[in-house]
Amino acid sequence: MALVRLVLQYLVAILVFPVTVLQYIGIWDPLYKRFFPSIMYRFTIDINKKMAKIKKELFDKLPEFASSSGLTVLELGCGSGANFQFFPWGSKVICVDVNPNYKSFLQQSEAENKHIKIEKFIQASGDDMGLVASGSMDVVVCTLVLCSVENIDLVLEEVMRVLKPGGAFFFIEHVVAEKTKWRHFFQHVFQPAWIYFGDGCFLTRETWINLEKAKFSKLNMKHICEPLGFGLIYNHVVGYGVK
Q: The whole model's pTM is what?
């Protein structure tokens, strides 16, 4: 079975070879990043329908970590602002995303969610948030983002740096399926194409391992199943870690 999977992976890699060439010469990534926000804006409408209960249950805990001046949220990989509707009234939001083409969608989401206020947008990757002061955030929120960062451990180190003592990191992340499932097989088969059309997304990450070894004083995490992304995305980890 492993050999069959490897052969199919190579076939998929061959099919997307023209995209690989475009990526190598520096054309694909900036071009796709221009159009990807509009794709994700539509996709997140469906995600929110399917994940509404999960998001509400998770983000209902956000007020527990508010400081005396209110709740300051850093959303890492904020995208189009799909999570804004689940944030508490009066939330001050710092938006961090590597893709500046999300700005117009964020403005639209803020207009539709007047109970929150965007303090600023910072174009940065999760492993280098130098413009965010250490110990300045009540909470950091990250949903369906760690699948596409270069180094999950470095991102979590930055998360710990910007959080206040006692602050929390809230997450919903898709992870690889169990090895005994056919979905696990096809996740690996389609990965060579998915990474390009999913804007760097990996279907095969075991993100719960990174979260478990991060230096949280307390980690509340559960595994759930919810089909997204043409059925290739199914297993998720949901919860929060306290600094």
A: 0.94
